[in-house]
Amino acid sequence: MKVILFTPAIKASAIGRMACLVTRALVAMGHAVVVVRAESKSLLSAPTHDFDVEMVRWDDDRGVTAAAAHADAVVYQIGDNFPYHEGCIEWMRRIPGVVCLHDFFLGHLFYSWAEKNRETATSLLRQWYGEEGARIFFDPSSNPDFIARTWNVAPMTEWICSQAIGVITHSRWGTPRVIRSCTGPVAVVPLAYDAPGGFPVGPTPSHRQTNTFRLLTIGHINPNKRVASVIRAIGSSPILRAQCVYRLVGHIQPSAVILLSALASSLRVNLVVTGEADDATLAHAVAEADVVSCLRWPSLEAASASAIEAMLYGKPTIVTDTGFYRELPDDCVEKISQMDEIANVRAALERLFGDPVARASLGRRAKQWANSTYSARDYARQLIDINAISVKSRPSAGAKVFFKNVMKNWGASDELLRGEGLLMASTAN
Amino acid sequence: MKVLIVNNMAPFVWGGAEELAVNLQKNLIIAGHQSEILRIPFQWEPATRIPSQMLMVRAFELANADHVIALKFPAFYIRHPNKTLWLLHQYRQAYDLYDAGQTNLPPDQTGADIRSLIRNADNETFAESRRIFTNSEVTRQRLAKYNGFDATVLLPPINDAELFVGKATGDYIFAGGRINGMKRQNMLLEALSRADSRVKLIIAGPPDVFADGEQLKETVARLGLEDRVKLDIRFLPRDTYAEYLTNAAAVAYLPFDEDSLGYVAMEAATAGKALITTSDSGGILGLVKHRETGWVADPTPEALAEAMNAVYADIAVTRAYGSSARALWHSFNIDWPNTVETLLR
Amino acid sequence: MKIALCSSFVPFLNSGARYIVEWLEIMLVKEGHQVERVYLPEVDVPDLLFQQMAAFRWIDLSAADRVICFRPQAHLISHPHKILWFIHHLRSFYDLWDNDQYRGFPDDTKHRGLRKALHEADTSAIQEATRVFSNSRVVSDRLKQFNGVESEVLYPPVLHPERFYCHGYNDEIVCVCRLEHHKRQHLLIEAMQYTRTPVRLRLCGLSSGQDYPAYLKRLIEELNVGEKVALEERWISEQEKVEYLANCLAAAYLPVDEDSYGYPSIEASHASKALITTPDAGGVLELVQDGVNGFVAEATPKDLAAAMDKLFADKNMAARMGRNALNRIDEMNISWSHVLRRLLA
Questions:
Q1: Residue A404 domain flag
Q2: How many CB pairs lie under 8 A apart between chains B and C?
């Protein structure tokens, strides 16, 4: 098959990394792939992951059209980040395809896109979420916290999924909205991922002398990673205070550095802020860590690359019992209930600190499970499958669109559109 | 030209509209065109089925037709660039019958939604049609009132005028046409029992259901009218029907609030027969002018009885009314060549 | 019984598919059944297929005791007692898919998806049927191959076969059918260059366009066979056809890969005439047995000429084969009584 894959390609993009894995898997299976770089123009000069296939820029109208003309399968990688996925949004309307949905919440993506498309955006909000949704989305007065005021009322999942001929996503919890809005097939497939190699990983090196308990959080350090809660948890435990070093590796705002350092200092917690690091440093930090903290609240993504990485590295990982993380096997990660978060984190960390054997087993089981689950080959195969199903379901979906449009022209109420008398019976469905 | 006539179909039911379509086809061919009839099965029960039936017609694709003449809801939703409507029926249960509470649309939000849907879809069809004709003044008025569209009245001609040449002025009043509650043959019988003994009646035609015919027989028996009424309850051969009509003293046709003139009335006028009808009969009032072309009675047995008596009071006057009816009918200029030409304009 | 006969049609296009429906209607009415003929429009445009199919799905024929469906997409109609007399698929998505010329749209992902979806929808609808009949072995095989469905072959008889008779065997090979490229009258004309006996050829029928008949006329001129070929491009009445067949030496019918044997073949057989055909004619080969009731000659002018000469040279053989042709009809159980018996079982 000839596949055209719209995705961010730059090194900084985890989705880009995943897309690269899938591309290589597709090629290994004998398919031909053309990658269309979807990141915003200003990012197009940045270095990319090594896809090793023909790449086209999304703003190369002729190039994209030519590649798509011969394509058997069209795929769009979508995440909640406009600068990385701008090209996908532009082309999705013109060339329908299968969407790989990395985030169920797409509020930020939509917000940025809406800047140049305010009228369409407002009518879309109204269409999916009514007057209420249209009102609160752009208006911070009800709640200045963007995510908090929008994630439940207007997550924008429907906006993208209604344009897709099929959707692959990476966990179940957000699928109701996807299923409701996508006229084609929806599949849940474990995210394609691998552990970036380079350093031996596994349980912490046994030659380490000290009794230090190394806790690590990686990735873009923002409030939903619950760093402050972890600091408080450590701070409330004499044992942890004494033994634990909590390290943060990844991009972090200077203001956050000041705040978190001050908090740690006041609670006598040993916090190490490394900031953004190269692959080698990152890998080393992971190799060294005893436990990885992948706490998230709120959790809006379909899958967590960092949690998967931690598991692939065989690291005991603590996660918040929600969303994607809730669907992980109970015996592979330590799940923390958000209610009474700090106390729960403290208890979990103390437990893990006190039982190295249990820690090692947890890590081992995580690695075993992750290895067999997060397979790029399996993802590639399911991508091809869902494309075939999507293409087969399109004629019927097209008929439904036709009838829906006629009904809308006749001013049909929503109830009538859903009505039982309107037996939308094409025998295939 | 290839002219496609598009009508509804109620499977295994054949009525006036079907006859009209067939005769329109015949006359289009006589005028030199090719013509076929597309009959689309329409199920309106339960009312919640109606939206799907509307969509069904909208989804049909027509190839190879130069011109379409559509007759009813929802057949007239068929898409064609050259579509003329000869409106026999809108879906009255979404319009005047809805207002009168006589509808199969449920009395809830769904019913209101369907009504609104029909209205919008109808308006869309009316707007995209080349010309709109209706088969009666009543239908034209309703279209203007409820949908705001103008239409021209185009009365359908009778189909075999040569059969309807007036013969003798017999001693009976003829009531032809379908037999059912709306046509009110029963009221005629009630009237007959109050009329002079010399008034005779022939009621002939097919019952919609068996019980309709049986009821008339019961009424005749109950009122003891056996020697003054002949009931010929069946689908009559055309010749037989023509015989009854052309030899009558007058012709009675008193349906409740019918849209169109009624073939019986038109055939009677063609044969120069005076007409008896009631004030609430609807379209036929275009042809029956009281004491000019016949009698318009209040819809009661007593008033009808008076009209029936009047037929016999002065046979010359009755004949004169009949001639006037014929003259009035002819003045409408309703014949097939004209009709075909008008429809294709 | 109340029986609805359902088929798709293109207005003003009179294809063989109409005869099977309309003749069945005549025979059913003769047996005393109430028949409603439901013809609904259908256009084979890939992008419009599924919405038209949905429309067929919404047809309500519950008033019928039985529904018999012929041409696609009529088989999609839903009914508790649905019988299919399947005459052909949407061939461009089935057996003609691999033929770039006939397919008419590209073999790309979208259309492959459409094909899959169509096969599934068709299979599902066909499986709903109480019984599935086909009009030939060819079609039955396709139903099995593509839809996995078993079907019974029910050969379509010709209307009033008693009209056909045998008067004698003159010097003409006759082909009475539409003048179309896929009916290959041009091959028969080309054959006339190579005939060695005084055998003659008569081609009669109308065409859907002007190009092919013009081509045939040119061909006759170029090959200088005007003396022995009669080309009548006009409407041939039933009576004329009966006469031509009654007197001819034999008939020829060699369409490209036709679904069924075709009415021309069976008409000739009723007139006790042998049939010349070719191995690639499709359903005709279920009727014609080489050397028994006709010849299956290679589709080349020389071989066709040889077959014609053989028949001319030995009129006894021609007569014998003609008698076999008549018997073949009974052998294959081609009769209305059989059809009715099977459809109404």
A1: no
A2: 74
**H helix count then E strand count, chain B:** 12, 12
Which domain covers residue A31, as residue numbers? Answer: 2-188
For residue A21, give the CATH number of its domain: 3.40.50
Domain pair B2-154 / B161-331, same fold: yes
Average pLDDT over residues B117-124: 97
Say yes or no: C345 contacts chain B, CB-CB below 8 A: no
Shared domain for A99 and A220, answered yes or no, is: no
Distance of alpha carbon A361 from alpha carbon A357, whole angstroms = 6
Last residue of a domain, one of A345, A373, A401: A373
Chain A nearest CA to C106, separation (Å): 12
pLDDT tens-digit series, residues A4-34? 999 999 988 889 999 999 999 999 999 999 9
Q: Does A248 reside within a domain?
A: yes
Percentage of the residues of chain B whose pLDDT score is greater than 90: 87
Per-residue buried b or exposed e for C114-132, using 16+ beta carbons within 10 Å of the residue's own CB: bbbbbbbbbbebbebbebb
C2-154 — its CATH code? 3.40.50
A35 lies in the same domain as A156: yes
Dist CA A173 CA A325 (whole Å): 10
Interface probe for C, chosen from B64, B66, B69 (most Cβ of C below 10 Å), is B64
Q: What is the mean pLDDT of chain A?
A: 90
DSSP output for A190-203: PPP-----SS--SS
Whether the pLDDT of residue A60 is over 80: the answer is: yes
Q: Is residue A401 part of a domain?
A: no
Q: What is the DSSP string of B148-177?
A: ----EE-PPPPS-GGG-------SEEEE-S
Asked if B172 and B198 touch (Cβ cutoff 8 Å), the reply is: no
Give me the mean pLDDT over the B9-13 stretch: 93
Question: Mean pLDDT across the stretch C11-26?
Answer: 90
What domain count does chain A have?
A: 2
Instruction: Provide, as residue numbers in chain C, all residues whose Cβ is less than 8 Å from the Cβ of A393.
Output: 113, 117
C83-98, pLDDT tens digit by residue? 999 999 999 999 999 9
Whole-model pTM?
A: 0.80
Please give the CATH superfamily to which domain B2-154 belongs.
Glycogen Phosphorylase B; (3.40.50.2000)
Mean pLDDT over the full length of chain C = 95
Q: Nearest CB to A72: which of C109, C114, C124?
A: C109
Does residue A93 sit within a domain? Answer: yes
* Domain ranges across chain C: 2-154, 161-331
Structure-block tokens of residue B115: 């009504």
- Tell me the pLDDT tens digit for each residue of C192-210: 999 999 999 999 999 988 9
* Helix and strand numbers, DSSP H then E, in chain C: 12, 12
Chain A residue whose CA is closest to B53:
A422
- For residue A427, the model assigns a pLDDT of 37
Q: Are residues A155 and A229 in the same domain?
A: no
| Exposed / middle / buried, residue B32 (Cβ in 10 Å: 0-12, 13-18, 19+) | exposed
Same domain, A162 and A217: no
CATH T-level assignment (fold) for domain B161-331: Rossmann fold (3.40.50)
User: What pLDDT was estimated at residue A209?
Assistant: 55
Give the rounded percent of residues in chain C with a pLDDT score beyond 90.
93
| Whether residue B333 has pLDDT greater than 90 | no
Inform me whether the pLDDT recorded for A426 exceeds 50. no
**Measured between CA atoms, how close is A49 to chain C, in angstroms?**
29
The Cα of A58 is separated from the nearest Cα of chain B by a number of Å equal to 37
Closest of A47, A45, A49 to residue A15, by C-alpha: A49
Do the domains at C2-154 and C161-331 have one common CATH topology? yes
Domain boundary, last residue among A346, A373, A400: A373
Rounded (to 5) percent helix, strand, coil in chain C = 45, 15, 40
Average the pLDDT over A170-192 and give the result: 93
Which chains pack against C, by 3+ Cβ pairs within 8 A? Answer: A, B
CATH number of C161-331: 3.40.50.2000
Mean pLDDT of the A103-131 span: 91
